[in-house]
## 1
Amino acid sequence: IQFCTKYQTKMPQKTHSLVVIGAGAPRTGTVSQKVALELLLGQPCYHMGEALGPHNSRRHIPMWIQAVESGLSKSLADEILGNYAACVDYPTASFYKELMQHYPNAKVILSVRDTSSWVESMQSSILKAMHTMERFPRPLKWLLGIGQADKMIDAVFRREFGDNYNLADSEFMARRFEERNDSIRRVVPSERLLEFRVSDGWAPLCQFLNLPVPDKPFPRLNDRKQVERALNIMTAITYVSDALATASCIGLAVWIGRRFLN
């Protein structure tokens, strides 16, 4: 949970329509892009952390499920993204085509990285997070406003990779990652598209957006440590919850035995 909220923009104010649409998949430096775009634009940038964060989760998670099931209309997009000037990461990256139609003046950034390192990163972070989320105590999920988070994430991955997707299948994930990137290159007009690696730094990003280069280093945020820390916390909570549930059952059985069998 800490990972989801650490980089969340707090209480964004109403802004104009989207300026930048991030079409890149997760684990392509999207947290660094989020922070960089917020520095450049002076406005909030939407990220998965926004969808799962405490300010938005109870409203946004059901709306993203609705978008997958019924389509992302302009009114729904405005309702979710009306306070943001840019968006990166899932779930928005899964809807880059719709967002391009809804916001025709927005430019598109396709963030990329080496295929094999992307697969390894997805499996060591997102896959583990999904497995941990499945075991996370449901009452705590609802208390934190993420009761349907696993449903939303699964719906987005089904939309992206098909109903039989398997994040643990390295060959499948590598093939789909490259097919997805190739599709974006074909769909987005070249004058509207920037293919970007976070290692490129400010220069191509600022040139693409016609903005001056900031007088500070490009944010290079290694969020893997945050993911690992969050997973460790969630796993510990799950173990404690399981232990308490087991102890409660044993205690109840002992009480029933003493109460009715003596």
## 2
Amino acid sequence: MYYHESIDSKSKIFPVKIILHDKAVNVPKHWHHSLEISYTYQGSIPDFTIAGKHYSTRPGTILVVNSNEIHSVFFPKTKKRQDSLALSLIFPYPFLMKIVPNYRYRRYEIPDKELLTANNQQNLAELEGILKKFFQFASHQTNSLDEISKTSQILQILYLLTKNFSSIVTTPNDLATTDKPFERLDEIIMFIQEHAKEALTVTKIADHFNLSTSYFSRNFKYYMGNSVIEYLNLVRLHEAYQLLTNTKKSILVISTQVGFPNEKAFTRTFKRIYKVTPTDYRKRLSGKNRTNIL
């Protein structure tokens, strides 16, 4: 059971999403059309799976998730979870199609350590150095002029990755799967995300796609691992997180803006997922784990 993650590419200058992680959090299997770069700055990710291949990261590890590759992050319960510091850079598909030559047929891959040539090692060290510097830069409060520097650094990261660790292949990267239910599910997910702020119900969504409520609910749960309402609330919580982190809007305003019927419902759902109330969560952030969109 997988879910499709739609990346919000709205931006001030440059449509690349920056996520700074400072908590050990499991991420279920999912895919998206964007290109994703993961960089571990401190600590480790014990199980980062990309297209069925398992990786265990350490400080300096760089992983690349190509467009439409199923990936996940897992921290085993048998192990003591140690918080790690990591960076994710997510490049929207339309942007890459415009800026990267032959992107539709381009595949990114960093060879396994034992397969690295001397030239690969040098190129990887250069890329790692820039990512480390960028993590340190992005971790601090920035002013409007720093947005220009961020854009420059991200373009340099994309340039080095494309130049040294990509190749042209015969299969286009815009084909998520040949499984028909997944294709329809993609449309449904996009609809939910676009209308999450509205008073959506299972029946309204099913009617929009001319599906029976029972058939729609059953298949959605099968492929997503969550019920329709559970997923809808996760979409709303994702938007709420952005607002809690990057604005001073009140909890009431945020709950209404993202689509919850009232503040009580928002707080109850938020606490069930994050084990803390929105108010306490905002206090704990204190400038850490900020998600920035250039």
